[in-house]
Amino acid sequence: MVVERGVEKEREKEVEVEYTRLRIPFGPVHPALKEPVSLRVAVRGEEVVDVDMVLGHVHRGIESLAESRNIVQTLYLIERICGICSHSHTTCFIQAIEDISGITPPDRALYLRTLIFEMERLHSHLLLLGVMAYEIGFDTLFMFMWHVRERVLDLFEKITGNRIHHAMNTIGGVRWDLTPEMAEEVNAQMREIEKSIRYIRDVFTDGTVEKRICGLGVLGYGEAVKLCVVGPTARGSGVNIDVRKDHPYAAYDDLEGEFSVIVERGGDVYARTETRILEALESINVARAILDRLPSGPIRPEENVFRLMRKIPEGESVLLVEAPRGELLHFVKTDGKGGLKRLKVRTPTFSNLLSLKPMLVGCEIADIPAIVASIDPCLSCTNRLTIIDQESGESKSIDVDRLRRMVRRKWMRR
Amino acid sequence: MFRVISDSRVKSPWLFHLNTGSCNGCDIEIVAAFTPRYDLERFGCLPVGSPRHADVLLITGPVTRQMLPRLIRVYEQIPEPKVVVVVGTCASSGSPFLGSEMIEGPVDRIIPVDIYVIGCPPRPEAIVKGIVTAVMRKFR
Lengths: 414, 140
Prior knowledge:
The complex is a heterodimer of chains A (414) and B (140).
Chain A: H1 7-15, E1 38-44, E2 47-54, H2 62-67, H3 71-79, H4 86-101, H5 107-135, H6 139-160, E3 169-170, E4 173-174, H7 180-205, H8 207-213, H9 221-226, H10 231-235, H11 243-246, H12 269-293, H13 305-310, E5 314-323, E6 326-335, E7 340-346, H14 348-353, H15 356-360, H16 368-374, E8 385-389, E9 394-398, H17 400-413
Parallel strand pairs in A: 1-8
Antiparallel strand pairs in A: 1-2, 3-4, 5-6, 6-7, 8-9
Chain B: H1 2-11, E1 14-19, H2 25-34, E2 46-47, E3 56-60, H3 68-77, E4 83-87, H4 89-92, E5 115-117, H5 124-139
Parallel strand pairs in B: 1-2, 1-3, 3-4, 4-5
């Protein structure tokens, strides 16, 4: 972009640090940031002027694959859309299928689904808080968070047999039951996790962290509504939306009184972080309530899954669930022969990514990682940034590792 | 001389992790392998940000079309001797994404692979073992 330059500006330019052109094919991955996205950030000096995004590096064609497979195969396929919110995806899909076929799962199955759901939210938020700590240069806290998260993963392993892809849902119910010993174990671990989260909250409200992330990446209420932001990102900006309250699914109907929707007014990175900490505590409350009230009975229909699958009539359904990152939408259209005509998935990160622009514009380059992490994106291999200097129109690439070093240097100066 | 360099790698292999379209499951398990419970760093492993510094390439995900040229470029940028460790079932064999038009993988169709760590996703212990076995075999 050609910008008018006066003599003074020329002089300023000479003083400016010249970045060398540095291209690294894949942003040095911090593997906890998922879903490759390439950010093109235009800067004037240190200030970010414009942001552009390139998506689609992990396009695996899941929606078209689903059309060529039967429903049970698709169930395992869509679990692999995301490794962090895998249960949210299957719950959304399977509820749409149950909606079409008219199967009502037993109460115990619904409660178990909800239990896994809340535990997933817990582990996802712990993961993000760890990443958040890492991005602001607080490695000890990152390690601590991930250590706490291991407890949740242990519970997953005890209940479902898997740490990441739980494969819990099946048509009309769930696949694994919760024994009383397991319930006790979950209760005991939740107590420990709650203690850790309360400690983490103290650390995050400590002046050091607060000073670093307060007032960063502000997303106002109006803008949040306009951009249709969802999940903790929206709730951090004062928008009171939560699918669990607005359109209850699974067992959330009965559990409505057990949790509250956390809404923070700040709209900055700090508010979003705090929303997640408090939400993790709410998740523990829900999990406890589920264990208290867990009804007895069967966990799935007697009939074989494949027989059930063949009975599913032609139809279509749209279902919403509140995934850890926000509202997740599945549109399912069945063909009446056990297969799918069309599947459409809209993930929360897709809605949230656009909000990066108002957040990033006006901030400093060194704050970019913290802000990007604060919306809990699914970014991965391409978290490489291209920096375009508006003065000269020159495009430069800078890798995230270097950015992180810049963050730390900035912090040291304070 | 080569022997000395190779021996030094046994004690401190540097890892570069490349996501070629995985679902994040393997990626978070790789990070989990670095955290206190599994502590991959006790073997001297260090995740690095540039393939030019790396000895071990960890690959996750079936190779998507957009990532194919990048995978090849990253592989070529890693200095010899190098080890390629493939993590996860979809990187090892392509399933459950086999048949998709967007998938160019599995990884061994594109670059030579030394160790396959299977599982969907594999446990961090398996990843640790895969890396250690690969390093022992190739660099000793």
